[in-house]
Structure formats: structure tokens, C-alpha cells
TrEMBL record:
It comes from Yinghuangia aomiensis. Residues 8-216 form the Ketoreductase domain. Transmembrane segments: none annotated. Keywords: Oxidoreductase. It comes from the Bacteria. Belongs to the short-chain dehydrogenases/reductases (SDR) family. This is SDR family NAD(P)-dependent oxidoreductase. The keyword Phosphoprotein does not apply.
Length: 252
């Protein structure tokens, strides 16, 4: 358990499934109030109900991070329902691999708009809250979920990897602006993790290749990454775990 999380106010994007849902559950179980953000409102509502039934505090806020008006509306609702946010987990993402010569500009645009510009829209919405919370002497955290794909190159994953490299760089750069004002920036780069991420792949051969990797490597569970997030954000506020790389033991 992480007693330091009690009383925190968190936003988790991509909370409809996978790492985001696991993180929201764990933060709430440790006493944080949690805003659940993603597009599938039915999933968010079911998770919010589950958290509230377990004695926690959660609110489901439907949002599409690729739509600026939707992010603005979601941020306003979060503030009305939960007040000032002091913990932001930027986790929403999509992974759509295909050979570069296929020229799938629709997929490239979706990945860039979700994984990079979407993350920026959410950072824009809540940075003021984080700075204010830190100025008042409390802990304040920005957590970005990047990927080992930011460093390791794979055929067919060029654009996904590029979006994650951008996000990792963004985390490092923002740390220079926010760290001196006591807002921690934690960048997490997981390897293969058992979630819904691969289910949107529009290429049977590449889906099969990914399934084979899951079978061979014994992936991380979403709860493993959630645990790292809870650990990092519950350290004393002068201590910043800046960069966490976590892979299944068998992933080379
Ligand atoms: P999931 O697909 O289970 O989760 C992704 C979440 O993002 C979903 O809840 C989805 O909800 C949400 N999302 C997608 N698009 C949008 C959008 N436009 N607006 C709002 N929310 C959106 O996969 P993971 O849990 O694995 O993914 C979480 C993060 O982890 C991603 O950034 C991914 O790149 C990263 N990652 C994953 C790895 C893995 O092996 N699984 C490895 C390394 C990094 P909805 O569809 O309802 O909007």
C-alpha cells in the first residue's frame, strides 16, 4: 500500500482498459480521488462504480484526447467534480503498425494526434493545477506513459516508435521547466504488457507476430505498471524517479 497517495486528486487518461484502468484502481484503493478519462463511457462508468462500491472516489469523464473542445470540457468537469488535480497520468495511446510503404497516413495521423498532441492537450489542461498544488507545498506529479519503443527499433513500428520517442523527449524537456517548481515528471517506458493495445492492429500478419511475442515472452501485467506509477508518485516530494524502464524478464 501507498499511504502517501491518500487525499491526492488524480486524472488518468486511457482509463477504459489496460494500464490506465489498473492505475486508476490502485490509486483509488490507496485513497486518491480519480478522474477516469477515455472515449468508452460505458467502460469508465463501470470502473467508477466498481471503485465507489469498494469505498473509493472516482468520476467517469468521457473524452477524446484528439479533440481540443472535448479535452477542455473534460478538464472543466474534472475541476467541478474533484477540484484541483495534483497527479496526472498521461497514458492514453494507440499502436497501429504497418509497413512504411503502405503509406497509412490515417494511422500515422491517429497515432501522432493521440500519443503526442493528445498528451500535450492534456498536459496543457492540467499543468496550471500541478504548479499551483506544488506552490502550496503539496506533491505534484506528471506521469507520461511512453514505451521501450522510444529507444528500440522494430520494423513496421516506425511511426509508433517515433511518437513514443517524442513523448519521452517531451517528459525530459518539461522536467527542466517544471522540476524547479517542484512538479515531478516521471517517464515510464514499459515493454510488452498484456492489454488491449494490440487489438486495433489492421494487419493479420503483424497481429500474429505480436501474439507470438506475447506467448514467447510472458508479458508484464497492467497491474505491474500501475504499481510502478503508485510507487513513483508516493515518494517524498523532493525525490523524482525520472525514468523507469520496465520489461518482461525474457524480453531481450
Ligand atoms: P489499451 O489499449 O488497453 O489502453 C489504451 C487506452 O487509451 C484505452 O483505455 C483507450 O480507451 C484510450 N484511448 C485511446 N485513444 C484515445 C483517445 N483518442 N482519447 C482518449 N482515450 C483514448 O493499451 P495499454 O494499456 O497497453 O496502453 C496504455 C499506454 O501504454 C499507451 O500509451 C501505450 O502506447 C503504452 N504502452 C503499452 C505497451 C504494451 O505492451 N501494452 C508497452 C509500452 C507502452 P478508449 O478506446 O475508450 O478511448
Amino acid at each position: 500500500t501507498y499511504p502517501a497517495l491518500a487525499g491526492r486528486t488524480a486524472v488518468v487518461t486511457g482509463a477504459a482498459s489496460g494500464m490506465g484502468a489498473a492505475t486508476a484502481r490502485l490509486l483509488a484503493a490507496n485513497g486518491a480521488a480519480v478522474a477516469l478519462l477515455a472515449r468508452r463511457e460505458d467502460r469508465l462508468k463501470a470502473l467508477a462504480d466498481e471503485i465507489v462500491e469498494a469505498g473509493g472516489r472516482a468520476v467517469a469523464v468521457a473524452v477524446d484526447v484528439t479533440d481540443q473542445a472535448s479535452v477542455d470540457a473534460a478538464a472543466a468537469r474534472v475541476r467541478t467534480e474533484l477540484g484541483r488535480v495534483d497527479l496526472l497520468v498521461n497514458n492514453a495511446g494507440v499502436m497501429l503498425p504497418n509497413p512504411i510503404e503502405d503509406g497509412r497516413i490515417d494511422e500515422w495521423a491517429r497515432m501522432i494526434d493521440t500519443n503526442v498532441t493528445g498528451a500535450l492537450r492534456v498536459i496543457r489542461a492540467f499543468t496550471g493545477d500541478l504548479l499551483a498544488a506544488a506552490a502550496d507545498g503539496g506533491a505534484a506529479d506528471l506521469v507520461d506513459i511512453s514505451s521501450i519503443g522510444a529507444h528500440v527499433t522494430f520494423p513496421n513500428y516506425a511511426v509508433y516508435g517515433a511518437t513514443k520517442a517524442a513523448l519521452s523527449h517531451l517528459s525530459a524537456s518539461l522536467r527542466t521547466e517544471l522540476g524547479p517548481r517542484d512538479v515531478r515528471v516521471t517517464n515510464i517506458e514499459p515493454g510488452l504488457t498484456d492489454t488491449e493495445l494490440g487489438t486495433h492492429i489492421d494487419n493479420a500478419a503483424l497481429s500474429g507476430e505480436l501474439d507470438g511475442m506475447y506467448d514467447a515472452l510472458g508479458p508484464l501485467a497492467a497491474t505491474d505498471v500501475a504499481d510502478l506509477i503508485a510507487y513513483a508518485t508516493s515518494r517524498p516530494r523532493h525525490m523524482n524517479l525520472r525514468q523507469l524502464v520496465v520489461l518482461p524478464t525474457r524480453q531481450a
